[in-house]
TrEMBL record:
Pfam families: FtsX, MacB_PCD. Keywords: Cell membrane, Membrane, Transmembrane, Transmembrane helix. This is FtsX-like permease family protein. Residues 19-238, 499-697 form the MacB-like periplasmic core domain. The chain crosses the membrane at residues 269-295, 318-344, 364-386, 407-431, 443-475, 496-517, 732-757, 782-804, 824-845. Residues 58-74 have a biased composition (Polar residues). The keyword DNA-binding does not apply. One of its GO terms (molecular function) is transmembrane transporter activity.
């Protein structure tokens, strides 16, 4: 009980210091709990949607996905004959059966040719209005579509794109463009996470999406009273026989949920990873806080020991304080986490993904996880200071000798740090010299962990040297105030090292990712310059295939010397060694593709691979199966028959663009794949006539005005798009790393604040002999800047080393250019100095307000 009272008194005696540490715990726990609540809410939302929109049993064509997705490379969904509906209706246990048709291989535009697609990246769906959809949607204005000139739209899409009754809409498919007017607007009775949905009448939907009537993509089956879904599925499957996919509502919902979870899990674990980094940084803050509080209570601890307190009790007293800190920070963090989740939902709503707070899901495991993590991390971080407090002897403490300085322990620490850093450096060296990226990645990971731990352990030793160098460069110009700031930073190298290390972690990751991202862009740009021989690339940014109408528009564009089509087909390959490789892809293109992409070969000529009955394979595949020029490969096309093609070229694996591709001409593939199953083009490549690049570029954009789903890019555009994509990813990562940097800044603030308290008498004496408030504040700010810059130097140096090693592994995959983004590195370094200035604002202000006489009288 005495230990608890002492801990509570000490805890509340340092409310401000504890509050800063509690904020670090709060932020880390909030990020973890916010991530869990947000992803759980997303799962709940989609789960409700999928359960509500699934019929008791669904029949779909063989080849459609388990989730009911109907996209395909042909641009047409796989269909069922109309006779299936009658067969299902006559099956035992069926109350009703309705044929429907829908597709996601569509683009919908308004009268101005602007896309009516969700900004969230959710799909655009066009289908027939049916009884199953009527269960989850309510027509709020107008009527359901009743003829070819009518279309109904969901309320969210109508609101987002300002659609009203009577507005003209165009539905672009592989069949052509169908135009209709808005006849009705329907609102979801469940949460719509953001899909744009349009409804046609059944006959019009069949003609628009498939190209003929009397066929369906799905049959929605409702069970008779008392018939279970599983029993109904068995009876329907038995009545239809082979060649159809029959699923219960649960199976469809589970398949849809599985697809959603695969995306959510990536986001979830990425965000939890950054929360873990914030926890790691917070550990340094908590260690520093308790180390300084223990040092400031040295005499008090001596008195406790003198009147009979044991080491264990002193140790326990400090740990109880940590426990209180962890509980308070964690409880607040759990509450803040729910707020973060709601904020994320609002953010997603602004991006087009509607999430209702009615579905907010807080599983019991979420607060438990937050509390356990927060308390455990806080107590573990406080263990070393607590153990150090227990080792203080009563007599040394009463003399105010402070915590025992163990020179031997310092030497051991330095040796351990050097060994870890050396081992990490050796691992990075081995990774850089690896022959295969997969083998080198393990060494890279080991090197990153060891060098990071090594730098943390050796931080106090590095602080002594680097702070002196920084002092000579930065502080000496400020005269005596600068020299005092330098001595303050050097007074406790362990504290300076720990504070700098907290900032080092976040900046090391920033530097590493900056080097990797910049090198990827530079390498891809270099490859484009060396290998791409065409002027323009036409493609969809959403992965949509290119419709025949758009291909025709491109080919009729004036000023073009050639247009190359590029398709992808699924196939199984059987090589002369008798091995069948399933799920391979054949890239079928026009022979001019050999000019558009100057791919390096190790044997044969790529142009020969486009001869009739010929193909190319990539180097790794050829070595694995003993192929050489002249070998014959049996190619079983999934949507066609089996071809026996002769290998005419073996392409190098030392490339970036189309690495691992196997080529054949479209004419060769067309002999074995029926025209109605031939995939549409994934890409188009266009080359202008000499001297007409500028006019051809403008003409291509004009020709594709009616097809806004496709983008025309010249090589400059393509490089910029690649740079923007990687830049957006890096910016998102930097935003998440900002959490760790914020916690590190709190650490600097806390260190300085406690340091000011620790030096209260010293500050009073300096003020008494003439140091002005302005000089005092400047001294503290300069000390903070040096600590921040020290951490930045360690972090940026370490991160660039990691990034350079990672680039060596990327070079094995063809990304051979190492590019150090000096503007980013310089900006981060300068920003670190401003971070130091910002962190010192409150401690410097409080130091300047000290009463001189009271400060001198401080015991």
């Amino acid at each position: 009980m005495t230990v608890l009272k002492t801990s509570l008194r000490n805890f509340f005696a340092h409310k401000g210091r504890m509050a800063l540490s509690a904020v670090a715990v709060l932020l880390s726990v909030a990020f973890v709990c916010g991530t869990l609540v947000f992803t759980d809410t997303m799962n709940t939302t989609f789960d409700k949607l999928f359960q509500a929109t699934s019929s008791d049993v669904t029949v779909s064509a063989e080849g459609s996905s388990d989730s009911g997705e109907t996209t395909s490379r042909t641009g047409r969904p796989p269909v069922l004959p109309g006779s299936v509906v009658a067969t299902v209706r006559g099956t035992r246990g069926v109350q009703s059966a309705e044929g429907t048709v829908f597709s996601t291989s569509v683009t919908v535009v308004d009268a101005d040719k602007d896309k009516l697609s969700p900004s969230s990246g959710a799909p655009t769906i066009v289908g027939s209005w049916n009884a199953n959809d009527a269960r989850t949607m309510k027509i709020t204005s107008g009527t359901a579509p009743k003829g070819p000139d009518q279309i109904m739209v969901d309320a969210d899409t109508a609101e987002n794109h300002h659609l009203k009754l009577g507005d003209e809409i165009g539905v672009i498919t592989a069949i052509g463009t169908h135009r209709a007017h808005v006849s009705g607007i329907a609102a979801f009775t469940v949460t719509n996470p953001g899909a744009a949905i349009f409804y046609l009448d059944t006959k019009t939907a069949q003609q628009t999406l498939v190209g003929r009537t009397g066929v369906y993509t799905n049959v929605n089956v409702t069970a008779a009273k008392g018939v279970t879904d599983d029993a109904l599925k068995r009876d329907v499957a038995a009545a239809l026989g082979h060649g159809y996919k029959v699923q219960t509502a649960k199976e469809v919902a589970d398949a849809n949920q599985k697809e959603v979870e695969s995306f959510l899990n990536v986001m979830k674990y990425a965000m939890l990873g950054f929360a873990g980094i914030a926890f790691l940084v917070g550990i340094f803050l908590i260690i520093n806080t308790f180390s300084m509080l223990v040092a400031q209570r040295t005499r008090e601890i001596g008195l406790m020991r003198a009147i009979g307190s044991s080491r264990r009790q002193v140790n326990r007293s400090v740990l109880v304080e940590a426990l209180l800190l962890g509980v308070v920070g964690s409880v607040l963090g759990v509450g803040a986490g729910v707020g973060i989740a709601v904020g994320l939902m609002k953010l997603m709503g602004s991006m087009g993904m509607k999430l209702s707070t009615d579905d907010l899901t807080v599983a019991w495991t979420t607060p438990v996880t937050g509390l356990v993590l927060g308390v455990l991390v806080t107590v573990l971080a406080a263990y070393l200071p607590a153990r150090r407090a227990g080792k203080i002897s009563p007599m040394a403490a009463l003399r105010d000798a402070g915590a025992p300085a163990d020179a031997k322990a310092g030497v051991v620490r330095a040796l351990i740090g050097l060994v870890l850093t050396g081992a990490g450096g050796a691992s990075l060296y081995v990774a850089a010299g690896a022959d295969k990226a997969t083998a080198g990645s393990g060494w890279l990971g080991l090197g990153v962990v060891l060098t990071l731990i090594g730098f943390v352990v050796i931080g106090p030793v590095l602080a002594g040297g680097l702070v002196r160098v920084l002092g000579a460069i930065i502080l000496r110009v400020f005269g005596p105030v600068g020299r005092m700031a330098e001595r303050n930073a050097l007074r406790n190298p362990r504290r300076t090292g720990a504070t700098g290390a907290a900032l080092m972690i976040g900046l090391a990751l920033v530097a590493c990712l900056s080097v990797v991202g910049s090198s990827m862009v530079a390498s891809a740009t270099d490859q484009l310059d060396k290998t791409v021989g065409t002027d323009f690339i036409i493609q969809s940014d959403n992965g949509e295939v290119i419709t025949p109408q758009a291909v025709k528009a491109v080919k009729s564009t004036p000023g073009l010397a050639r247009v190359t089509e590029y398709k992808m087909l699924d196939a199984s390959l059987t090589t002369p060694d008798g091995v069948t490789s399933k799920n391979e892809t054949i890239n079928a293109a026009d022979p001019t593709y050999a000019q558009d992409l100057r791919t390096k070969t190790v044997a044969g000529s790529l142009a020969d691979a486009y001869r009739p009955g010929s193909m190319s394979v990539f180097e790794g595949f050829a070595k694995k199966h003993g192929l050489k020029v002249g070998s014959t490969v049996a190619v079983d096309f999934r949507d066609g028959t089996t071809a026996r093609l002769t290998v005419r070229a073996i392409t190098s694996d030392d490339v970036v663009i189309d690495k691992g591709a196997m080529y054949a001409s479209i004419a060769t593939v067309a002999r074995f794949v029926p025209a109605d199953r031939m995939p549409l083009d994934e890409l188009l490549f266009a080359t202008a006539k000499d001297g007409q690049q500028k006019s051809a570029y403008a003409a291509l954009k004009s020709a594709l005005h009616d097809y806004p789903q496709y983008t025309v890019r010249d090589q400059t555009d393509y490089k910029q798009a690649l740079k923007d994509q990687i830049g957006q990813l890096l910016n998102m990562i930097y935003g998440l790393l900002a959490l760790a940097i914020i916690v590190a800044v709190l650490g600097v603030v806390n260190t300085l604040a406690l340091s000011v308290v620790e030096r209260t008498r010293e500050i009073g004496l300096m003020r008494a002999i003439g140091l002005s408030r302005r000089q005092l504040r400047r001294m503290i700010r300069l000390e903070s800047v040096v600590i921040a810059v020290f951490g930045a130097l360690l972090g940026l140096g370490l991160g660039m080393g990691w990034g350079a090693t990672a680039q060596k592994l990327l070079a094995l995959e063809g990304l051979k250019v190492l590019d150090i983004p000096w503007p980013t590195i310089t900006g981060v370094f300068i920003g670190s100095a401003f971070v130091g200035l910002f962190a010192a604002l409150i401690p410097a202000f409080r130091a300047g307000r000290m009463n001189v006489l009271n400060a001198i009288a401080t015991d």
